């Protein structure tokens, strides 16, 4: 019919030929169609992997910078701490057990170790940390430090006209703790000055005693040398005396031929 002729625009042979040619095209196969679908997935995965690497590198860099900041901050804190107060250097409170002292020292010494830090203050800070550690592990040295800290507390209490039962003393605030810390510096500084004066006086006394001993040694040496000289000239002195005695006897004999005896008178 006319309708059928209008509907069938192409013949069946042409449709079949088109399908055959389409199936032969490389983009038309199912494998290639799936491969094309996976290409965006590969690109996305690769992009995600690259982004993950960049993020990891960034985090590692930030972590490194953070560690360096921590190192520098700790080194700065140690250098600003009052060197004579070992607790201050180690950032510890008085009365802590030895185990805490050892743990804190190990942690901080690893953090600021000169071999792991480019900070030029690291060696000095490390030495100060080690000295503070040794002080707190030395029973006598730690005892002296604890005594100074206790003295500083009592001085502060007296200055503020408080008692050990005062609330400000029992439950000290930040201001009281800071004032106490400053008073500890004062007490330790005075103790150091006193130690220096005592050392100077001791050195002077030792010097005086040494000079006295040297003088005594020199006096004994001179006396010994004089005795040696006297002993060396002994034979000469004896010989001279003999010569003198012989000469004197010869003179007396030549004058009178000898000594003339007096005649004794008989009484009666």
Question: Can you give keywords for this protein?
Answer:
J domain-containing protein; J_dom_sf; mainly alpha; DnaJ_domain
Give structural notes.
This protein is an all-alpha fold. It has a domain of 90 residues. It has 10 helices and no strands. Helix 5 packs antiparallel against helix 6. The protein is elongated, with a radius of gyration of 54 Å. The N terminus is likely disordered. InterPro entries: DnaJ_domain (IPR001623), J_dom_sf (IPR036869).
Concise overview:
With 268 residues, the chain is mainly α. It has helices spanning 2-7, 12-24, 30-80, 86-90, 98-111, 122-137, 139-159, 167-170, 174-232, 234-256.
Secondary structure: elements and pairs:
Blueprint: H1 2-7, H2 12-24, H3 30-80, H4 86-90, H5 98-111, H6 122-137, H7 139-159, H8 167-170, H9 174-232, H10 234-256
């Amino acid at each position: 019919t006319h309708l059928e002729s209008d509907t069938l625009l192409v013949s069946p042979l042409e449709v079949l030929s088109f399908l055959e040619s389409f199936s032969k095209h490389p983009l038309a196969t199912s494998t290639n169609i799936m491969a094309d679908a996976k290409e965006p997935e590969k690109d996305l995965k690769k992009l995600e992997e690259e982004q993950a690497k960049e993020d990891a590198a960034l985090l590692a860099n930030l972590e490194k910078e953070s560690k360096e900041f921590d190192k520098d901050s700790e080194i700065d804190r140690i250098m600003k701490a009052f060197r004579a107060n070992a607790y201050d250097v180690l950032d510890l409170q008085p009365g802590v057990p030895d185990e805490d002292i050892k743990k804190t020292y190990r942690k901080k010494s690893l953090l600021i170790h000169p071999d792991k830090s480019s900070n030029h203050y690291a060696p000095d800070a490390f030495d100060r940390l080690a000295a503070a550690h040794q002080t707190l592990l030395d029973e006598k040295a730690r005892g002296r430090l604890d005594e100074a800290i206790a003295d500083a507390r009592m001085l502060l209490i007296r200055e503020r006209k408080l008692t050990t039962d005062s609330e400000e003393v029992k439950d000290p605030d930040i201001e009281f703790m800071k004032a106490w810390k400053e008073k500890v510096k004062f007490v330790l500084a005075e103790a150091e000055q006193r130690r220096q004066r005592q050392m100077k006086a001791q050195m002077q006394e030792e010097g005086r005693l040494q000079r006295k001993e040297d003088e005594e040694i020199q006096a004994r040496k001179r006396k010994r040398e004089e005795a040696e000289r006297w002993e060396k000239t002994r034979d000469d002195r004896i010989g001279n005396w003999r010569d003198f005695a012989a000469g004197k006897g010869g003179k007396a004999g030549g004058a009178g031929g000898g000594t003339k005896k007096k005649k004794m008178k008989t009484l009666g």
